[in-house]
Amino acid sequence: MVQIRRYTLAFAVVVLCLAASCKKAAQAQGGMQAIPVQVQKVTLQAVGDSTEFLATLQSRNASVLQPEVEGQITKIFVVSGAHVEAGQAIMEIDPRRQQATVNQQEATRQSQQATLIYNQSQLDRSRKLFEAGVISRQEYDNAVSAHDASKANVQATDASINQQRVQLHYFTVRAPEAGILGDIPVRVGDRVITTTTLTTLDRGGELEAYINVPSERAADVHNGSLVELLNQDATVALTTKVSFVSPRVDTSNQLLLIKAPVPNVDHRFRNDQVLHARVVWKQMDRPIVPVTAMTRLGAQSFVFTVGKGPTGGAAAQQKPVKLGALIGNSYVIEEGLNSGDTVIIGGTQNLIDGMPIIPQA
Fold this sequence. Notes:
Number of domains: 4
Low-confidence stretches: 1-5, 7-30
Number of helices: 3
Structural class: alpha+beta
Mean pLDDT: 86
Distance between the termini: 68 Å
Order of helices and strands: HEEEEEEHHEEEEEEEEEEEEEEEE
CATH superfamily of the largest domain: Efflux pump adaptor protein, beta barrel domain
Shape: rod-shaped
C-alpha cells in the first residue's frame, strides 16, 4: 500500500509539471515577437507656405513680324526655324504696283524738270530785258513766279518719289535683328494685310514667368518672394524671385499679375511655355518625413513613432498627423510631430499600435 501511494504521488507531481510547462508554452505562443524596423530622427527644416499656380513664360527678346504693306506674297527666302542675320530678306510681297507708282512719279518729275529749265531760261531773259527797260515790272514778276512754281513742283515730286521709294522697301520683309525664326504660317500666293502674322523672331536670352495670383494674397507677395518652377514630377526645376508686382488688380477676374525672371542659359525653356510654379508666401520650420512612413485609415493620416512598451522595450506608437505639402518624396507635417521624435520609415505595413520593435537606423 505504501508503495502504491508513492507511485500515485509521483504521477501527480509529473502531471502538475506537465500542466505548468504547457501553460508557459501557451503564453509564449500567444505573445508578440519584436520585429526590426527602420527609423529616422525628426528634424525641423525650412519649408515655405506656398501655393501652386500656372505660369506662362514670355520672352523679352522675341518679336512678331508683320508686313508694313498689303499685297500678295511672291517669294519666301527662308524656312521655319532658320537662323537669320539682321537685315536678311525673309519674304517678298508683290512690289509691281508700287514700282509702277515710283516710275510714274519719276516720269512726272522729268516733265517738271524740263518745265523748270525752260522757266529758268525765261527768267534769265526777262531779267536782262527788265534791266534794259524793254519789258515792264509786271512781266518780269510773272517770269519769277512761273520759275518759282515750277521749282516747287520739282521739289514736291522729289519728296513724293523718296516717300514711295521708302514704301517700296517695305515690300521686302527683312529680319530686324539676328535670331531664330518661328513657324511661317503664310505661303506664296497668300494675300496679307498689315495685321497678318508672317512669323516670329526669337533672339534668345532670358525669359519671364507671368503668374496670376488671387487678389486676397496681394499683401503676401512682394519683390523678392521666392518662386519655384516645377518639373512634371513636381520636383523643382528652377528657383527664382519675384521682380514685378502689378500695382493694379485685373478687374475682370480679380487676379494680380506678378513676374519673375527665368534664366535660360541651357535653352530648356521655350517662349509661351506653360508650366506649374510654386509661389512661396513665407518660410517656416516644419518636420518632414518620407512618404514611406505614412499610413492611412480613412481620411486620417498616421505615422508610427518609437515609444516604450509595457515591459520597457521599444514599441510602435501610432500618432495621427496633419499633412502639408508634398516636397519630392517627403511630406511636410503641419501637426502631430515634434523635433526629436523618432519615426518608423520602413516595415510599417505589419505594425500595430503597441507592437514591440527593434529600431534600426
